[in-house]
Amino acid sequence: MGEKPKELPPALPARPPSKARLPSARRSMPNNFRVENAEGSLECLPSLNKRKEGDLGFKAGHFGVKKTENDQTVESPYGGSLEDCRTRPEKIAKSDCDDNIGYFIKKKLCVWCRLPSGLWELGTIQSTSGDAALVSLSSGNVIKVHRVELLPANPDVLEGVDDLIQLSYLNEPAVLYNLQCRYSQDMIYSKAGPVLIAINPFKDVQIYGKDSIRAYRQKLTDKPHVYAVADAAYDEMMTDDVNQSIIISGESGAGKTETAKVAMQYLAALGSGSCGTEHANAILQTNCILEAFGNAKTSRNQNASRFGKLIEFHFSTAGRICGAFIQTCKLVAQLENGERSYHVFYQLCAGAPSTLKERLNLKRASEYKYLNQSDCLEIDGVDDARKFHILVEALDVVHVCKEDQEHMFSLLAAVLWLGNISFRAIDNEKHVEVLADEAVTIAAMLMGCSSQELMLSLSTPEIHGSKDSIVKRLTLRQAIDARDALAKFIYVSLFDWLVEQINKSLAVGKCRTGRSISILDIHGFESFQKNSFEQMCINYANERLQQHFNRHLFKLEQEECELDGLDWTKVDFQDNQECLNLFEKKPFGLLSMLDEESNFPKANDLTLANKFKQHLNANSCFKEEKGSTFSIRHHAGEVLYDTSGFLKKNRDRLPSVFFQLLSSCRCRLLQLFTSKELKQFQKPENDSYQIDALDPSKSSAGIDFKGQLFKLMHQLESSKPHFISCIRPNSKQLPGMYEVNLVLQQLRCCGVLEVVRISRSGYPTRMTHQEFAGRYGFLLLEDDLPQDPLSLSIAILKRFSVLPEMYQIGYTKVFLRTGQIASLEDKRKKVLRGIIGVQKYFRGHRARCHFDQLKEGVPKIPSNADGLGENTGRKAGSCETLDERQNLKKSHPENGKAKRKAGRKMSEVKVLPIKICHQIWQSFKGGCFRLRQLWCGRRRKMLNYRSNCNNLKQDGQNMNQR
Ligand SMILES: Nc1ncnc2c1ncn2[C@@H]1O[C@H](COP(=O)(O)OP(=O)(O)OP(=O)(O)O)[C@@H](O)[C@H]1O
Fold first, then answer.
1. Helix, strand, or coil (residue 294)
2. How far is the CA of 257 from the centre of ligand 1 (A)?
3. CB within 6 Å of ligand 1 — which residues?
4. Which stretches make up the Myosin motor domain (predicted)?
5. ipTM over 0.90
6. Helix (H, G, I), strand (E, B) or coil at 765
7. Which atom of ligand 1 is nearest to the CA of 258?
8. Superfamily of domain 423-486 in the CATH hierarchy
9. What is the pLDDT of residues 153-189, one digit of tens each?
């Protein structure tokens, strides 16, 4: 029962229930502001949805091909916005579009031609005959192709544009070429409307660092960059008070982790200052700790993340970092699968000081079975020993004390020694016992137990029946599995504990404002020759992330337009819901069935595969394969999985005998891990930790993974997302290499073309009529302004001559095209500046007058502040208030002078009420200060007048207290 919410996907943000929500404001619209005007004028908008088929020469982006519904907006050079019109080359004026191919031939314009190899090459059309065209390619060859193989190329002036939105012809080769062109010049970042595309350079590019950060912060550049994304998130958080998230997606090796680090670097620089600097530094240091423990080398990436993470940066009201929180998504096993294991093992073996090595009985990495199974012990260009020192420094920064560090390293060494424990057959049934060698002795010593206890636990686990415990020997396979399960439990618990320590050290504390920016970096999509349970989990997480991307950039965007009654044509996109159903459906989804089989004693990996095949064939994303294999058609490509090991990995249960062993160990951390694990699974009414008492559904790796993933997604749902799509340009991890097909496949996966299409025809800025009228309404000077927000919004748009094709009025919101809000903001700023200027002069004038009055009214300033309170109240009857004196001065100026003179006597001051004395004293002191400034000619400092006065006021109060 309690599990139920866990099974639900993240909730959709609240949406209005129906379309029929015409606000009353619309009815009460004044005569002079016609909605029809705004909407009607959209008729003349070169809007994609309104354009009749054939209006444009390029149909579906090809010459002379019937446009499909999906492609209605596809390859049009006319995005519908004026900006597009501005960048639209002269050659594609509407009159020329009637016979495009003829036009392209006549003007000798370039086209993209798809070669039989599937690659695209530039060329010019020489002639046509029927559906065939003769094309002269840039390579010098002339080939005959079908018209459908031709796509219009963009003019040179659009080569390498920053934002794909600016392309006149939006088609795959145009996008690919544009990105390639930029990539070859080390411009690794480009924009696809609201999405930043980051192509992994696989080398150092000189676009980071303090100067660059300053340039983006001061808005001196608007080139696409991660800094620009982080800057926008920061600004939006500060101005709108809405939490933000930066969501980084891409395949394994595409550069997500590096991109996340760049974004973190920017936020850290922005949020530094006062105590923020310490926090910022500590947050940055967490990268090397988490990478050491959570990353490993795979064939795709030398530094592949084996876990997902969401880092929340918390900010104070002043915009300083006041803490952070890291959430992780399950670490995938990398101990016994033959790949290079987690970096930290190699770093420890290479970099531990000799005394530590001695204490841990450490040997070289090559001597440990968990490390020497793969061919790779070292990574080119990576100095593990140096990394170890950096790791220790980072642990110090996040306040992991030396004692805990020693415990951590002991447990890491224990894991390595556990892997070296071997077994000997003792009977014909291949039952085994543990070989009593140095591995078991040292492992036991590091864990803080006796080797006898460890040996016993490793070969004779108890199986708890309903009444009696049966003791039996394990077979070799079972013993190895038990040993690996123990090692994995220790490592995973250590990782979780470390994240906990980091979170404690970065804790936000009391200054929590609720303002945060989260950065999501999860393990990227993986497809190897052999894919197992880990890959399935990772790829499932990527499907979920893709769904989030789709929801925000396609579904919600379009849904909002529809609900608000906008004139809108849907852009189709590749929805991955079917694939998610394949994983999440109950009872016949991959995860549910996997769980069911895991709880069935007689099930094995083959029966699992058969079960999948029996129930999932109807899902179009599932493909049946031979034996224990099956394929899934992921959004990022088809992956072949082998169910071998699925059940064992999913069960993820530590045999009960190990709980007994671990809780009796002297190592404090091991006791802690065990008690936590027991607490998690214990039923409240049951004090024992017998395996029967464990809720099996809670202890499955698949369900845990799903739960953690949903938690992350829920968190993301409550923030404004900023997307970064990372692209892996080649499979060799080399700089300067751009594999067109690989890039194209990734661009397709992340729906870049569709995002650009939506952005071109869309209205990225949306504000409710209330917000819009509230923000810009004061710019209108007219007396008879409409009162309702909708009419006021229209009045504003009209007053500032926003072209009708640049906005749409919805039932509840104003929708504006790119660039429109900036010009309105500009006007708002100018007017505000003017208002502030007037206020400044007025306030200055008033302060001067006040000061003059006070100056004239103060008879004498005591040289000794103590004198102020002296004898207060004496001669109270003769006391004159300040006002009285001022009035007197006004009516009899000469009298005032006389008073002033007289006032120089100390006795007169004393009779003033103490409050007024202070007021005068403060003002006079402030005034003197100001006069001195004037005399010195330092006019600029005058602007600090108010703050100085405050300081003086404080001085006055202090004096009073004294
Ligand atoms: N901006 C960059 N500048 C220089 N090198 C980069 C950049 N981005 C990525 N790289 C290189 O690419 C490698 C892989 O990047 P990264 O580890 O960030 O990929 P990933 O997408 O996080 O992969 P995974 O999903 O497997 O963790 C890095 O180790 C680094 O060498």
1. helix
2. 6
3. 200-205, 250, 252-258, 301-305, 523-524, 726
4. 159-829
5. yes
6. strand
7. 18
8. Myosin VI head, motor domain, U50 subdomain (1.20.120.720)
9. 988 888 899 999 888 888 999 999 999 999 999 999 9
